[in-house]
Amino acid sequence: MTPPAAPANRPDAAPASSSPTPTAQAPITQDVLTIPRKPVAADRINIIGLTREGLRAALIAAGTPERQAKMRVGQIWQWVYHWGVRDFAQMTNLAKDYRAFLADRFEIAIPEIVTRQVSEDGTRKYLLRIAGGHEVETVYIPEDSRGTLCVSSQVGCTLTCSFCHTGTQKLVRNLTAGEIVGQLMVARDDLGEWPEPGAPKDETRLVSNLVLMGMGEPLYNFDNVRDAMKVVMDNEGLSLSRRRITLSTSGVVPEIAKTAREIGCQLAVSFHATTDAVRDRLVPINKKWNIDELLGALRDYPRLSNSERITFEYVMLDGVNDSDDDARRLIRLIRGIPAKINLIPFNEWPGTPYKRSSWDRIEAFADIIYKAGYASPIRTPRGEDIMAACGQLKSATERGRKSASQVAAEAGL
């Protein structure tokens, strides 16, 4: 849309032209990846998502004496992130007048659950509403030895990976650090996982692992993801170790080393193909940073982050990327990188042109990789009956507005 003309009383307004055929001005299209969006104005500052440094600065700016700020951060942090308290009035080790001071200037707000679905296999999918009325999806996957929460980092996605349902929804905006942390807090609320004061300590963690594999590309929202993970990894609060957190990227090469240095979590890569020709089609970001450039960045990650290995995610698409030759090429490509290959049976969605590889084909592919010395687990599809499986996430309003043919047309399929 062409921007409106500047008002005549503005100093930067252009003088009116008397020419009968003025030259048309090209519309300006903002690049949502580089131009930050202004936050929605709020009367109170949301504490959720602020790092310790950020919370200290906010308290001082609001009037907390500087000499008290560090102690106040520690007290508030424990109430919010260890006990799960949302009301300043319940923070009983703070003076009443200071609790009133906090309530007047700050809030403790997390995303709102719009719908909650539970799959036959126990998987839970939450549709969450965030500021501006936008929606994201978060998925909790319970297993015998752990519980994994899959969180989103953007509303929609810019990457348009042709096999991914989220990629058919245009990017709306990045999530804030608070909206990312808030997804974990919503899940802990729903699971009843917050400890109770005075109760025996329970070391069982229902949410023991967190994966940044939901809607969006985390490395296109780096600063907010980094700050959110600082909050999540803090050992006096939510206390998930960096070895329990996995960030999945489609291959934003310039941010990979930065992720190692500033976050240091485990890294997964949406790889999905063994030639540039196929990966260009499946994961279009490959046209910007190809397989060779991506692998070059990945070779340094374990050393920079002190991680044990890289996880290569590989969705199995019938007749596209699942041949024996593909398996052998994959082994040659990743040689020298400590790695595990997660084979993901394709999860179908309305309008997709792809089919899941047969089970025999997936097992044959896995066997070639395993014999080459790499772990090659086949991921069990979870939550398919509620569209919660890998590659199926998309906000319900977007899904409900569009027919299967529209979805396919938008993806260029």
Description of the structure:
The structure is a single chain. This protein is α/β, with parallel strands linked by helices and 413 residues long. Helices cover 32% and strands 15% of the residues. The two termini are 27 Å apart.
Look at the structure and give the mean pLDDT.
Answer: 84
How much of the polypeptide forms β-strand, as a percent range? 5-15%
**Bulk shape:** elongated
Describe the main β-sheet briefly: 9 strands, mixed
Instruction: Give the N-to-C terminal Cα separation.
Output: 27 Å
Uncertain runs: 1-39, 399-413
Q: Largest sheet, order of strands side by side?
A: 3-4-5-6-9-10-11-12-13
- The helix/strand order is EHHHEEEEEEEHEHEHEHHEHEHHH
Cα-atom radius of gyration: 24 Å
Pairing-aware structural class of the strands and helices? Answer: alpha/beta
SS element count, helices: 12
Give the helix level as a range of percent.
25-40%
SS elements, strand count: 13
Features:
413 residues; alpha/beta; nine-stranded mixed sheet; two-stranded parallel sheet; 12 helices; elongated; disordered N terminus; disordered C terminus
Summarize the SSE layout with pairings.
Elements: E1 45-46, H1 52-62, H2 66-82, H3 96-105, E2 106-107, E3 112-118, E4 124-129, E5 135-142, E6 147-150, E7 154-155, E8 173-174, H4 177-191, E9 209-212, H5 222-233, E10 245-249, H6 253-262, E11 266-270, H7 276-282, H8 291-305, E12 310-316, H9 324-333, E13 339-345, H10 359-371, H11 396-401, H12 404-410
Parallel strand pairs: 1-2, 6-9, 9-10, 10-11, 11-12, 12-13
Antiparallel strand pairs: 3-4, 4-5, 5-6, 7-8
Helix pairs in contact: 1-2, 4-5, 6-8, 9-10
